[in-house]
Amino acid sequence: MANRFPPAPPVGTTMLPVRPSAEARALLALRRSASKHHMTEPGPSPESLDELLRVAARVPDHRKLSPWRFIVFEGDARMSFGKELARIHDANTPDAESKDVLEAAGLPLRAPVIVAVISSPDHAHKTPVWEQELSAGAVCQNLLLAANAAGWAGVWLSEWMAFDPGVAKTLGLTEDERVAGFIYLGTATMGCPERPRADMSEKIVRWTSPA
After folding, report:
1. Torsional sign, CA 56, 59, 64, 69
2. What are the structural domains, with CATH classification, of the chain?
3. 170, 164 in Cβ contact below 8 A?
4. Which end of the chain lies in a sparser environment, N or C, as judged by fewer CB atoms within 10 Å?
5. CB-CB contact of 60 with 135 (8 Å)
């Protein structure tokens, strides 16, 4: 397999402070998530995904804690996870209609590859947990950008299973861990229209010293 990204340099290598790139600017300016309803095969191979995750992990990480990890769902593992989701949904909602249970079972089948990014902060460390959780969020965004740059469609979702205790137990999460997001990766079957964006004039304030 030909690598799509350069390898990491040896530790201690002096890195360039900036890397001007017109392609990178376009990627950021025009970034758009794929639709969860319009993704199909193929998805990244295991080797390609490992490369994407390596790149995704190059995020701000105060004191180098790596407060995140990945759970990958590929092939039949998606169906097995879907069966667990259906079981948990049925247990949580005794009066659920069968179509709702079937829908829960089908959630992991919406893309050929799913990566659960797990926020795994060290609560005993002096680095604030909030900073560690932000690093996990940065991993999610970096993974989307890396996937897009490599030619894959992606979408970051949470939905009910990211917050359900039964799902957390199924995933083997500790009490201090939680799902930062499920990243769905594959091939888009159609484009998505641009959506409304924030009015930046309402979001930007330039601070001045109090009089």
Report:
1. negative
2. 34-74+112-189 (3.40.109.10)
3. no
4. C
5. yes
Residue 162 DSSP code: G
Nearest to 181 by CA among 125, 141, 147: 141
* Contact present, 121 and 162 (Cβ < 8 Å): no
Q: Rounded distance, CA 166 to CA 81, Å?
A: 12
pLDDT at 1 over 70: no
Task: Please tell me the distance from the alpha carbon of residue 184 to that of residue 110, in angstroms, as a whole number.
Answer: 8
Query: Under a CB-based contact definition with an 8 Å cutoff, are residues 162 and 68 in contact?
Result: no
- pLDDT tens digits, one per residue of 43-76: 999 999 999 999 999 999 999 999 999 999 999 9
Q: What are phi and psi of 207, to 5 degrees?
A: -70, 140
Amino acid at 154: G
Q: Where are the beta strands (DSSP E) in 12-147?
A: 39-40, 68-74, 113-119
Identify the residue whose tokens are 């970034």.
31
